[in-house]
Input
Amino acid sequence: MLYDAAWQVRLDAGIVAVGAGAAVLTWPGATRLVVGVVCLLDPHLSVLLLIWWTGCGRLLGGVGRIVAARRTPGLRRRRRRTAAGTSSVAAGALLLAFPVVSVDVLTTAAGGWLIAVGCAEALHGVVRRYRLPAGSPDRTL
Output
């Protein structure tokens, strides 16, 4: 029964994510300010620290993917993982090299990502709802 009601949670999560993504894309300056206040530091410094943290994470995560790809069986999977690791290393290097420009790029990317994930979650929730048997109590809103 709880599994059958999961469509409502996914639909709600999708709607919230779309709204958050739209807010980030509509008010990028306010979004950066909120992130700064949440970090309880100077807004500009906290956003810069967040960019550095993200850049280091991308860089180290990419190196980890490349190393793991060497141990992956199958040439096709190994190539995909190597490509993903290489792109992650490149993204991390760009974040660390150009942190000021990266703020705007990441804000836009995060807003777009939130909208895409929100739409996917909402769609998945609706599809899951319609896959429930007719007359199921969890099928109602």
User: Anything to note?
Assistant: Residues 6-132 form one domain. The mean pLDDT is 80. The chain has one domain: 6-132. The chain is about 80% helix and 0% strand.
